[in-house]
Amino acid sequence: MPAELCPPYAPFFGFAGVASAMIFSTVGAAFGTAKAGIGIAGLGTFKPELIMKSLVPVVMAGIIAVYGLVVSVLIAGNLTPSKGYPLAAGFIHLGAGISCGMTGIAAGYAIGLVGDSCVRAYVHEQRVFVSMILILIFAEVLGLYGLIVALLMNTRVTGLAGTCD
Amino acid sequence: MGYKTYASFGLPTFLIIIVALYLLFTDSGEAFNVGRFLEETSPFVWGSLGIGLCIGLSVLGAGWGIFLTGASILGGGVRTPRISTKNLISIIFCEVVAIYGVIMGIVYSSKLQTVSEAQLYTRDNYFTGYALFFGGLTVGFCNLLCGLCVGIAGSTAALADAADPTLFVKVLVVEVFGSVLGLFGLIIGLLMIGNAKEFLPGSPVVSAVRI
């Protein structure tokens, strides 16, 4: 029974989870950084003194990548060749990685588009700044939801510890 | 519906359905066995694919970023030649991404040791093969995305610099945030391979090999 529950190809799915968490959240972070950066450079040519405050979307896009990093590190920490690794744990890790990664794409996409259009509006109207921060927070929180679900799924794996003996 | 929609969505779906129904109706549904596929493919396949994708995708990202930035620098440099030397730093940011790929390629290739076919299919070797594949994929794609991001940011920095010289350092902050993405990929790549041993000969896992 343990041989069927812990096949040698189980780490494939665990590593796929690590890779999905990192790659997909990097997609979101890269899109957010690039798109918001275009808007910031545009703002800078008209009002250079406002650049520092409008770097907020870029920072928030970077945080999306950190969410992916956290989930990847957490999953990779559970993957060792010596300890038995059940197939169920592999699927749970894959699900956790996909959940963090796909929400990271969504959050990064939203942050990029919101950041770009809001900093362009910030050139003309200074009171837009507070609304921009609020909208960016709501977009960021999408990535946070993915992180929370990934962490919740990861805690389930500790319950499977004894199946490979 | 255009030809592109049919080709990209319709044709693959059609082929998948035909193959699945064929397997179903000719009583060979057991032929579709993901576990057996993962057990039968040699860990060398996974390892080599991972290393190739690692360096290939990283260099693709670096090249893409360099041409994005370079085109803007050269275009802006026609009217404002002073931007050409200072903006080479954006090109260097993109190049660094390729260096990450080379480093990880070298680190990963130290795990590829020669093992004979009869002694290859051990649990540890499977683990190392999968670690190399997904580590290489992670490093490659993260560097590709980082190169793209830094390229776009560098392109806008060059044009902002052409408009106003004081802007360059401030827009460079966006590039620094972008380049950190490649670094994260590198960290995860190293973490994945940290526990994996190199390919060592051993007694094969009994259920695995069907020669």
Radius of gyration over C-alpha positions of chain A, nearest whole angstrom:
20 Å
Summarize the biggest pleated sheet of chain A. Answer: none
What sequence of helices (H) and strands (E) makes up the elements of chain B?
HHHHHHH
| Gross geometry of chain B | flat
Q: End-to-end distance of chain B, in Å?
A: 47 Å
The tally of strands of chain B reads 0
What are the secondary-structure elements of chain A, in order, as H or E? HHHHH
- Would you tell me the structural class of the helices and strands of chain A? mainly alpha
Name the average pLDDT of chain A.
94
Number of strands of chain A: 0
Tell me the overall shape of chain A: elongated
Strand content of chain B: under 5%
Helix content of chain A: over 70%
Beta-strand percentage range of chain A: under 5%
* Separate helix tally of chain A: 5
Total of DSSP H or I helical runs spanning 4+ residues of chain B: 7
Helical content of chain B (DSSP H or I, runs of 4+)? over 70%
Low-pLDDT stretches of chain B are: none
Largest interface: A-B, 45 and 53 residues
